Amino acid sequence: MRFKDKVALVTGGSRGIGKAIVEALTKEGATVVFTYKSSKEAAEQFASELNGSGAITEAYQHDASDTEGAQRLVEHVVKIYGGIDILVNNAGITRDQLLMRMNEADWDLVIDNNLKSVYNLSKAVLRPMMSKRYGKIVNMSSVVGVMGNAGQTNYAAAKAGILGFTKALAREVASRNICVNAIAPGFIETDMTGNLNDDQKKMLQDQIPLKRLGKADDVAQVVCFLCSTDADYMTGQVLCVDGGMVMS
Question: Which of 33, 54, 86, 196 is the most exposed place for a label (fewest CB within 10 A)?
Answer without folding.
Answer: 54
